[in-house]
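Table S2 (continued). Query chain:
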Amino acid sequence: MKKLILIGLLMTLLAKITLAQEQLSVQQRADKLFDQYEYFKSLKFYLKLVGHKPDIKLVERIATCYRYINQYQDAEDWYAKALNDPKAAKLDHYFYAEVLFRNQKFDQARQQYQLYFTDDAGALALKLADVDSAMVWMKQPSQFKVNNVGGVNTPSSDWGAAYGGQTTIIFTSDRETEDGKKDNRTGNGWFKLYTYDLNTKETKQLFLDPGTSNEFKDAYHVGPMVLNNKGDTAYITLTTEVAAKNLPIDQRSGKNNTRFYTRRLQLVTAVKKDGGWVISGSFPYNNVQQYSVGNAALSKDGRLIYFSSDMQGGQGKTDIWYCEKQSDGSWGKPVNCGKTINSKEEESFPFVDENGVLYYASKGMPGMGGYEIYVAHGQKSNWDTPKNLKYPINSTSDDFNLITRDGQSGYLSSNRDNGQGSDDIYAFTRIKDSIFVKPISGSPQTIIATGKPASPDSSNPLSGASRPDFNIRPIYYDLDKSFIRPDAAIELDRLAGILKQYPALKIALASYCDSRASYLYNLALSQRRAKAAVTYLVKKGIVPTRMVAKGYSKSNPVNQCADKVKCSEADHQLNRRTEIKVVSGSN
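Corresponding output:
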């Protein structure tokens, strides 16, 4: 569903020819609906065609439909059936890996990625690093508790929370409405706006008055919505309602001469009037003939607006952009936020807190797969390296649209397992105030940092700019390798930042291998791993005299995987590590 909301809706125009009037077979009806991106409806027809031994193309279509409507267990089952057929497409291995990863079947996902990325070692390494990160981070959760907001969520898709006041959140949902209209891509209704009172637990639909605007008739998706600091002006994402005849047609071939056009996203402004919201204008850089603009965020002073778009000049599929308010009150031209936070994939759902810290979702950076929430310091197009907020803020599913007032608590959206619907709204809260350091041996010790930082910053624990988070997690390595993986680089970058902020700190690094191979071979390998971590930190500006590093071969396993013990790849991964301990200068 995020893909539809991010880019827009693909619609169809049928040429007025005789074939469109003819009776279609079940197969033809299913294919036609599939080509029109109506996966929910096409799936029903495809399932009617399943016999004792269905054709591979039929099985692949069913798997694809289940994947697009977010029924991942069914998608997994049907991709498994497809791959039992020698005629299955190679691409099936990739999508099977994706749903296995999402369903937290990590060893199986690794195998399928390896079967797909036979000619792209770099892409394979990134995917395997994501799998390893997910395995490790889920076993070492951060200091936040994430709970489903039961009163607001339904079996439909509910997401995109925004603050509507001290006791209200505004969100978008495709739950069933009185008019009974449905989107055939999902089988649910069109997205509309709702308010949820945190005190009374009451949910109400938020209706928009079109005012004098001719751009809003409430016919398609509405939301999300963001308010300015005063709460009197809003920016709302809409699926454009421009007449189809005024939209460019995406040419496609087909027996029924079907033509497709795209209803892209646009931003509109609304003002609060007599307790309601009235559409007051259109964002000046909407261009629904060429690209989408949506999912806006505002700086505290209202001088900057951030948004996602696939407009020309970006780094990837969708990027975060910004505009700056001019002296006459108009918005300046869009500027891309740059390569530091934008990747070759998709970035969206920005949020800026009161300190100017940016939270956003990305599919293109190392992590746990799907959309993941990152935090970055800076503004406009100048940003520090984004920080992955890890598990449980992130999961192997899509996690996005985080909002927070203080960094201690807030809301996010996710389609993770055990929710009430497709997408749900979750509340998160910080549950620990102490800072834990995992030592090389013995029990975890608690250190409360009292040393004076080199450059104190915000007190926001989510942003990574609070008193130092000495919860230094181990970094991990590929089998028989010592290079620093992308997920390890994130942890070492964070460590380098702490060491620069607290120049009195000194650390010890202890590197280990899993139980496979001999003691002497693993001793040399573990020493190379320790050296690689030190070398990386030196390149980040940390002097070598502040670090002591040593390899310990395959000693000190963190689990039962000693010599000749049969273990899963996930368990072996936990032993291929470098542990980092603060040895002096913490108080």
